[in-house]
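Here is one record:
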Amino acid sequence: MIMIMIMKMIMIMIIIMIMIMIMVIMIIIIIIMIMIMDNDNIMIMIIMIMVMVMIMIMIMIMIMVMIMIMIMIMIMIMIMIMIMIMIMIMIMIMIMIMIMIMIIMIMIMIMIMVIIM
């Protein structure tokens, strides 16, 4: 379980790194475009950059939220398993006690039988 969690975390980290890389590349490309363009299109380009950055930030936030949800679910599952194990142990103990009581009852019955005989 913990191994799976670590693996998922690593995967998510890699995805975030890739996102950041894409963002940087986008910005570089846009800067180059601005250099090539004349003054008329610079404003449009700046707006484009702003939009791009906004979208990237949104995606990043979405990923973060996803990660949080994943972790929450993992923790929930862990807790569920713990509770299940606890319940299992409780049931086992109950059964043991029941068996003990049964044995004692049988012993008493036998004793009574012996006494009567």
